[in-house]
Design goal:
It holds the Pfam family RA_3. The chain is an alpha/beta fold. It is built from 26 helices and 55 strands. The C terminus is likely disordered.
Length: 1287
């Protein structure tokens, strides 16, 4: 777009440009034209200007539709963008001009068609053909067509007028001829089968015909599938297949009139089944009523508002599907279809039960889900004596009306989920066998128990459930998440009850008869107020017992002796101090396989009891009071596959763990383990988590088991890994280790305010589909970005968002748009490209910054999310949710929106059977039902804010907000806190991917974030240690999760077309340094003439910044260290810069007042000045210290380690030591490094006379201490040539 075009576009928001592609998708880039137009420009005008007949529209890389001449392309684009969530017309104009939008909406001048699609519709060509199995006939050149179910052979010259030979292929066979190359034999079915031999010119052509013809021949029925081909008409050759009985034309754009249109379908004389769903018909084609042979007709999702009276002609119709339309009534003529047994009316606009259904005596199911019914008319149901199944979920039902006491003996199944019922009396349905009434507002429920077999009433407000008479056939009863204070008496009398779920109620005790039931196999009583279980007197068949989150202090002594079939026991989050014995003598009959005892008060005394369960496969003992695990006891658990001992006080894992040959997962983080356990000899070991311990070294074998996929060693501050060890670990898919000590001493300004820890666990799945973004220093350095992305079953999208979303956020923030957070999600949605067409991802993004309009204000937190990822703020010890869950089960507004747009919500509560989320990034093919527009909230941070918790769906599904906050509030290590949250979720029943991020906040009202005028000597190589990180795959990398596949972050970023820049500073090591305005906090506001300027986040080194984040050109004469006239105590910390052999990095300056920090480069020393009279100096120092100790997260690994192609991380020494490169840079005697080495006047350290003696004494002490420390750390290091030039 040239300058003139840009000026023309800016004149009016209703103007824009449309990209028009050619008909060949492979050459789309070369055949691309830009058309300038307005929102009022019709298709006809564009076609006239381009000399084209038509214009075609493709959405999400899927179907291609011919636009009508009166349609307006630019208005279509703007409406699409507005539907996504864009609001500003100028921004929509900008987005419409972005070529990336073509992955979501694209215009073609010719209808594109893939070769594969053409093959399935029509294969044709001129080949040599011989008829018959013998060689009596000669080879002749013929036109051969494979269409539908037939092979058509005709003369080349007279292909349409001459004689045509039609060979039915259904039930026949297609074989290759061995005597003649590239030749196939087509044979029809039946006693008088005919055969045609066809010779092809190439192997590829022969294989295409063989593959497609074999598919047709293998069909048992004469079925033709032409779905999803953007067809406007049926291919003419298809009508020669007179044996077609099943025709699928779903997801096309079939025309009602014209050649090959719906009017022509009556030419199929044997057609029985026709699928025309999703064809944008608008009106019911009357011509279909002439196909009297039809027994099945699907015309769902076509925008129909009424049915014609001619529908009564389809007398043979048995199945009629009308779901997803706008029907409000049915014609009386429909009652003449006496063979109709299935009628689909779900997701229409019916307000009452259709009375015509009374006449359809063969109809046994009433499918009216997703309509507008407000009253359940039981009297009308009584009149429909033939109806056995009723589906009324997702309506607006508020009450059930009963006009008489007459009972209903026909209805056996009823689904009333997701309505607004407050009480329900179905006692008149005496034949009812199964009832679903989840997610209503029920307080009372009354049923007839004569035939009742299953009752599902979860997520209500039930206090009373009455069933009379006692349901003797009841096998399954689910009453979880209600307000029951006791188990109903009739439950104890149900003699066939096998599954009882009363979890998340208000129960204080269980009736003894429940546990003594001779039929009960699964009992779920978790999240109640039980203090004890009744004793067991007899043997019971119980197999699953879940009593987590109660107040139980002791399990029944005879539990394992009487419940010999018990295979699963979850007693986590109780107050257990001991466990009952599983042995009466020496032999144990226990069949227990899964045992979860996390978050109790168990001690070492319970370990011997566990040996009685020799069939244990999974054992969770996290967050107890264990100090030792006897070696002799562990050796007896030979069947153990997963062991979780996290959050205890263990100092070692017994060596007898080597006897657990089947062990594949060991989780023992947050202990005091100092010796690496002997687990690397185990043949099936896959995942080992020993983070947050006290490991110092690892003794490993020469070869590791090939099954090892994940090893987490973060949080072991004293652990030193040699290069040999790292080489052995190189094949591990995911290796998480801490950075080197001198690299982790990143005491930037942001360390005072926040630090983070990230944990991600795959659970029972074989891949991790959760990724995290953690940038504690973003943009100016006193901003932070944290995010979490959950792809459910795909790992591609979370990684793409992890690499690109921070850069998108930075661009949006720099535009100073009030909608920056919402636009960040919408632009990220676009940048997913083709990957986002079929895949989707939940996301939450948190952005901490000062208010742009008021730089002197406190920090504010802006949170945006889509899907099921959430963020929770801990304020004064209480949880404060900041996100909105966009799922069908938890957001009634979204359910209403999706229903209005006529999406089909399947019985498992998923949009079109794909996902339960209604807002996601990606999944563009489900537009407009699935949108990327996020929920955005902003809140100012205060001194009462302690933690920020981020988690995916699996975390919040098993942990409440209050429980998550209370579980980690007392922990000082954010990594250990995040690990604990994931461990708790897994112990509470989560088997899916779980991710948690904990951000420790230290926000104070007088927190100073000024960049004062003064300099320190840059760290090794002249790179900033305060606000920059080591080189990472992408400029937005604050990556908190490890890549688990052979794809680096940079490769992912390049594939998605990221805006991230992987280039280093343009100036390089020799470039000039650009000055930048200093930053001031609310205590020390910037002068009015100052300019507030943002800089892009960059994870690479920048040579134009010094250690404290200031530009080297910002040097100012130091006027003194007096702040308010009082005496200031100055503490000086001196470190020597030792060039290439340097093993530590000077920490950044910690600001606690307006004291300036000078630089003295005459001796290569760094002077760190800390003011002692600031009111918050101690708090700042403490916060920095804690942050240095606690910032051990997986993100640290990615920031300071190089990711290998297999996902492993090794130190930068083996690949590219930027510190060494930068240290050697002064040897270049040109440019900036040719500066003289003498001290500049403005670099002098000025101290008031009354403090000179005190400062000299402190400097002398620190210099001696630093020298001693350097000798101890590097006794054998030969110092290279030193350069005292200021970098």
């Amino acid at each position: 777009v040239g300058s003139r075009e840009r000026d023309w576009l800016k004149e009016e928001a209703g103007r824009g440009c449309v990209f028009v592609y050619g008909g060949d998708p492979a050459a789309a880039g070369a055949d691309l034209r830009l058309v300038l137009c307005s929102v009022d420009t019709p298709v006809s005008e564009i076609c006239d200007g381009e000399e084209r007949e038509s214009l075609f529209l493709q959405l999400h890389g899927d179907l291609v539709r011919r636009l009508e001449p009166t349609e307006k392309p630019l208005q279509i684009v703007y409406d699409y963008l507005a539907g996504l969530g864009f609001e500003d017309p100028a921004r929509m104009q900008e987005e419409a001009a972005n070529s990336d939008l073509s992955c979501m909406i694209r215009f073609y001048s010719e209808k594109p068609c893939q070769v594969e699609q053409l093959d399935r519709i029509l294969l044709s060509g001129v080949y040599n053909v011989r008829k018959g199995k013998t060689q009596l006939h000669k080879w002749a050149e013929r036109l051969v067509i494979l269409c539908g179910t037939c092979l058509i052979v005709s003369s080349v010259k007279d292909s349409h007028t001459g004689k045509m030979h039609i060979l039915p292929l259904v039930g026949g066979k297609v074989e290759e001829m061995k005597r003649r190359q590239y030749t196939l034999a087509f044979t029809s079915a039946g006693a008088q089968a005919q055969t045609y031999h066809i010779s092809f010119e190439t192997l590829a052509e022969c294989q295409r015909w063989h593959r497609q013809a074999s598919t047709v021949a293998s069909l048992r029925l004469s079925m033709v599938d032409l779905s999803c081909y953007s067809l406007e008409e049926v291919p003419e050759h298809l009508f020669y297949s007179q044996d077609v009985t099943y025709l699928n034309l779903r997801h096309n754009f079939m025309r009602s009139t014209g050649a090959g249109s719906l009017d022509s379908l009556c030419r199929f004389s044997q057609l029985k089944s026709l699928n025309l769903s999703h064809n944008r018909l608008g009106e019911f084609p009357v011509s279909l009523c002439e196909i009297s042979t039809l027994t099945e007709l699907n015309i769902s999702c076509n925008g129909l508002h009424h049915l014609p009276s001619q529908i009564g002609k389809l007398l043979n119709l048995q199945t009629f599907l009308l779901d997803g339309n706008f029907l409000t009534s049915l014609p009386e003529e429909l009652g003449s279809l006496q063979q109709l047994s299935c009628l689909g009316l779900s997701f229409n606009n019916f307000c009452d039960l259709p009375a015509i259904c009374e006449k359809l005596v063969l109809l046994d199911k009433l499918a009216l889900a997703g309509n507008l019914l407000e009253t359940l008319d039981l009297a009308m149901l009584n009149r429909m004596s033939h109806i056995k199944s009723v589906d009324l979920r997702l309506n607006n039902l508020k009450r059930a009306a009963v006009d008489s006491l007459e009972g209903n003996k026909s209805v056996t199944y009823m689904d009333l989920r997701d309505n607004h019922l407050t009480d329900l009396d179905l006692s008149s349905l005496c034949s009812l066998e199964q009832l679903h009434c989840e997610r209503n507002k029920l307080k009372e429920l009354m049923l007839c128990g004569f035939s009742l077999r299953a009752l599902y009433a979860n997520s209500n407000r039930l206090t009373t459930v009455s069933v009379y008479p006692v349901p003797g056939q009841l096998t399954c009863l689910e009453l979880s998440r209600n307000q029951l204070q006791c188990v109903p008496d009739w439950v104890c009398e149900a003699k066939k009850l096998e599954v009882l779920d009363v979890s998340s109620n208000l129960l204080t005790e269980l009736p003894p008869r429940i546990l003594s039931s001779l039929s009960l196999r699964k009992l779920m009583v978790g999240r109640n107020h039980l203090q004890a279980l009744p004793p067991l007197q007899e043997h019971i068949p119980l197999e699953v017992l879940d009593l987590q989150h109660n107040l139980v202090t002791k399990l029944p002594e005879t539990l394992f002796l009487k419940a010999l079939n018990l295979r699963y026991l979850n007693a986590s989050a109780n107050s257990l101090e001991s466990l009952p014995s599983a042995c009466t003598g020496e032999e144990s009959l226990s069949m227990l396989q899964l045992l979860y005892l996390t978050n109790n008060n168990l001690t070492d005394q319970c370990i011997p009891v566990l040996t009685g369960h020799q069939n244990l496969r999974i054992l969770h003992l996290a967050n107890n009071n264990l100090q030792t695990f006897p070696a002799s006891k562990l050796s007896k658990l030979e069947c153990l596959e997963e062991l979780n001992l996290s959050g205890n006080k263990l100092k070692t894992i017994p060596t007898t763990v080597a006897n657990c040959k089947l062990l594949h997962t060991l989780i023992a983080h947050s202990n005091e383990i100092s010796i690496f356990p002997e687990i690397l000899h185990l043949p099936h070991i896959q995942s080992v988590d020993l983070s947050c311990n006290e490991l110092t070294e690892i003794l490993i074998p020469e070869a590791l088991p090939s099954t090892l996929q994940e090893l987490d060693l973060t949080g072991n501050t004293n652990l030193v890994l040699e290069h040999k060890t790292l080489d052995i670990f190189s094949h591990i898919t995911t290796l998480k280790i801490d950075a080197k000590p001198f690299l982790t001493a990143d005491t930037g300004l942001t360390s005072t305010f926040w630090s983070h820890g990230v944990a991600e666990m795959a659970g029972q799945r074989n891949k991790l589909c959760v990724s995290s973004l953690a940038l504690g220093s973003f943009a100016e350095g006193v901003e932070a970005v944290y995010g979490m992305f959950d792809g459910d079953k795909n790992e591609e999208l979370p990684r793409l968002l992890q690499c690109t979303m921070a850069d998108v956020l930075l661009e949006e923030v720099q535009q100073s748009d009030m909608m920056f957070m919402s636009n960040t999600f919408l632009v990220s949605h676009r940048k997913l490209g083709m990957a986002g067409q079929k895949l989707g991802c939940s996301a939450v993004l948190c952005y901490i910054r000062h208010d742009v309009a008021d730089p002197a204000s406190n920090f504010s937190l802006t949170v945006a999310n889509v899907g099921t990822c959430q963020a929770v703020l801990c304020r004064s010890g209480k949880p404060l949710p900041l996100s909105k869950v966009f799922s069908l089960e938890q957001c009634s507004e979204e359910v209403r929106r999706v229903k209005e747009q006529k999406a089909i919500i399947t019985e498992d509560n998923k949009v079109n059977g794909v996902t339960c989320c209604t807002r996601m990034l990606g999944c563009t093919y489900l537009h407009p039902w699935i949108l990327p527009k996020p929920h955005v909230s902003s809140i100012p941070l205060t001194v009462q804010d302690e933690l920020l918790l981020l988690g995916n769906r699996a975390l919040w599904e098993y942990l409440s907000y209050a429980e998550a906050v209370s579980a980690v509030r007392h922990l000082h290590d954010p990594l250990a806190a995040a690990k604990k949250l994931c461990t708790l979720a897994q112990s509470y029943g989560c088997q899916d991917n779980v991710g948690a991020m904990v951000v420790c906040l230290n926000i104070s009202e007088d927190s100073c974030t000024c960049e004062m005028q003064g300099l320190t000597l840059p760290g090794p190589g002249g790179f900033s240690s305060a606000t920059t990180k080591l080189a990472t795959p992408s400029s937005s990398s604050g990556i908190a999760s490890e890549f688990s596949s052979e794809l680096s972050a940079s490769e992912v970023s390049s594939e998605v077309g990221s805006t991230a820049s992987d280039e280093h500073s343009a100036a390089g090591l020799e470039g000039s340094l650009l000055p930048r305005q200093e930053r001031r906090c609310s205590l020390h506001p910037v002068l009015p003439s100052s300019i507030f300027q943002r800089q892009p986040s960059c994870a690479t080194f920048s040579s134009n910044q010094s250690d404290n984040g200031l530009d080297s050109d910002d040097e100012q004469p130091v006027e003194g260290v007096m702040t308010n006239g009082s005496k200031v105590e100055v503490e000086v910390d001196i470190h020597c810069c030792k060039g290439k052999g340097l093993e530590f990095e000077p920490p950044a300056v910690e600001y606690s007042s307006s004291a300036a920090v000078p630089e003295d480069d005459s001796d290569g020393l760094v002077l760190l000045i800390q003011s002692q009279n600031s009111v918050n100096s101690n708090g700042v120092q403490t916060g920095v210290k804690e942050k240095c100790e606690l910032q051990k997260s997986p993100s640290t690994c990615c920031l300071y380690g190089k990711k290998l192609s297999n996902g492993s991380i090794v130190p930068l020494e083996e690949s590219l030591d930027l510190i060494e490169v930068a240290t050697e840079a002064p040897k270049k005697k040109t440019g900036y490094f040719a500066a003289p080495s003498q001290m500049e006047p403005e670099d002098q350290f000025v101290v008031p006379p009354d403090l000179e003696e005190e400062v000299k004494e402190q400097m002398k002490q620190h210099q001696e201490n630093g020298a001693d420390q350097g000798q101890k750390e590097e006794p054998a290091v030969t110092l290279p040539e030193e350069f005292d030039t200021a970098l």
